[in-house]
Amino acid sequence: MEPAKVAELIDAKVNQSQNRLLTNLDNLISTRLSSFQQNISDSQKALSEVQVAKIEEMNTDSYKFQWKGNEEQYKATQKAKGSRAHFEVAGQTRHHKRRNRRTRDNIGRYKHYRAKTEANQDG
Question: 0.70 cut: is pTM over it?
Fold first, then answer.
């Protein structure tokens, strides 16, 4: 055989081997990637199901009262708590305003007293 033909046969076999290797690598990478995507998809689905369940749990009153009177008392207490919180905030605001006014008045009295005593000491 001629050396040129041998070189061509070797090149053909090397190219064929490289093509098989690239095809196998491509299949391996594609399989791994699809497996990874499936795992991510499954975990995201499970996470979203947990989140939906938590939201539904928060939105529904799962507790059932044994007697109607207990439920009415609970509702009245909750309503009173909301009203009391509003009045406590309003009361604190009025209290703070009153305390600030007293502080201003006391500062004014102190300044007036101080001015009188300095005037008496100078005179």
Answer: no
List, in order, residues 6 or more apart from 71 with CB less than 8 Å away.
Answer: 65
Domain that holds residue 123: 83-123
pLDDT in tens, 39-77: 999 999 988 988 888 887 777 655 677 777 877 887 888
Residue 6 in any domain: the answer is no
Location of structure tokens 């996470």: 47
Q: Give per-residue pLDDT as tens, 109-121.
A: 777 777 777 778 7
Q: How many domains does the chain have?
A: 1
Residue 75 placed within a domain:
no
